[in-house]
Design a protein that fits this description.
This protein has 98 residues and is of the alpha+beta class. The protein is 32% helix and 39% strand.
Amino acid sequence: MHHLESKACLSAALCLIVAQNAWANAMRCGGKLIEKGDSILTVKMLCGAPTLVERSFTVNRAPVETWTYNRGPAQFLVRIRFVDGIVVVVQTLHEYGH
């Protein structure tokens, strides 16, 4: 019986880790989830203007924009990276806004 309980605890812990990682790669705006594959227009429409915008280019000269959202002191900062107008990364920075 002890072996079965250990397996159940291990499975539950693994599920929590996977779920935490999935939420770390998305941001909720206007009741919708912003995630990889969304367009820059969709993000701007749902989330509004970001606090900070950084622009650069890939080696293939595709435009890259990195948007940082500061959603206040009770929430973590979120950084969204777009390549050619499409979300490629949503990153929770684990640093509270202000």
